[in-house]
Known about the structure:
The chain is an all-alpha fold and 469 residues long. Helix content is 75%, strand content 0%. The protein is extended, with a radius of gyration of 36 Å.
Amino acid sequence: MKFLPKLERRLCRLKKKMSRSPLMRKLDLIHESARKKAFQDSCDAYKTQIEMEYVVRNQPTKPSRSNKEVFLSDGSFHQAVGRVLLIAEFFAMMPVKGVTGKHPSKLSFSWRNIRTCFCVAFIASSLVNFSLSLFKVLNNPISFNSIKPLIFRGSVLLVLIVSLNLARHWPQLMMYWHSVEQDLPQYKSQAGRWKMGHTISMVMLVGMMLSLAEHILSMVSAINYASYCNRTADPIQNYFIRTNDEIFFVTSYSTALAIWGKFQNVYATFIWNYMDMFVMIVSIGLASKFRQLNDDLRNFKGMNMSPTYWSERRIQYRNICILCERMDNAISLITMVSFSNNLYFICVQLLRSLNTMPSVAHAVYFYFSLIFLIGRTLAVSLYSASVHDESRLTLRYLRCVPKESWCPEVKRFTEEVISDEVALTGLKFFHLTRKLVLSVAGTIVTYELVLIQFHEDNDLWDCEQSYYS
């Protein structure tokens, strides 16, 4: 009897439906279909909105140029130094193909390459310019100041020849460097991979900007000098005659020779500054490899590590030391020329600072050049010394090994770090360490005291003896 109330309710609903008119039933159907359609449309719109939000939220943002370079950096020295070598190729140095490639296997050297032909042609041109300077020096009274152009052009010519020889071996050196990098503990973050390349780029940028500023100031000073010692009515001709004294000492003036002399001067100035920066860049790369190993040792400082771990780290340290030795053999002559040049020109500039400055433009150029020269020499010394400093820093972490983890591998590793002298050298005559900075400073003071005893106050605007060639 319990089903009777339910049956009664159903009968009542059926009776109400039957009592409705056909028009009302048709309206009810239309209303129901409209309601279902509106509900479906709202569901589709909501679904589409959710899908669009998901796509926008998960779509990778397109990085800017600088961020893209940071993201793609793999921390290799080959990739970090690519643009630096590309600039050097424009100035007839390091004619290596594939310097901007992602892998050092893309590097190659060929005597038939347009880069190499340009480099050889510029070496021949520099040889002619050096010969003209030598002829002028030999046909005039020789003094400490008169041989300055000869030292300058001779150093540039020597660096060009050495860089051409280095370019022949650069692909093999970079392949070995890459193999050493692959065996090292990998960077934990992208910032670590980016740091070395950023440092190299900033050193190159700052060095080139300061070099350009120095060259512009020298041009302003030379223009004032040419206007004071005017040989002709044409100021442009006076400028080229004074700044290319070695050329027009042999032959008469011509526009083609004047342009060639200016071209030689600009390129020689870049190469003279670039050899210092190249030593700094190689030093930054080598020091970063020791730092990469030391970072891993610092992460496990004081922990109980297995003998296998210490054996691997010792082999990696030895590989970096071998890399330093190979790079030192390749660039030691450039290092020697760089330091000897800086030592000579600092002595010359300090000696000339005792003279009276003939004009404000000359004084600004002279003191800017002197400060830039001393700063560049100090930067080369400190960056080169960082290789030795980082190699010795490994000993600090080895001394923190707990006695439970002490093993023959740790002892052997410690003895190698203590006994080895890991540093760049100048043809094996001296090691580039922090002690060298004081040695160079003492040498400069000694030479300067000797030169001051024989110094006579000279007129820097002596029209018979040009100081701008």
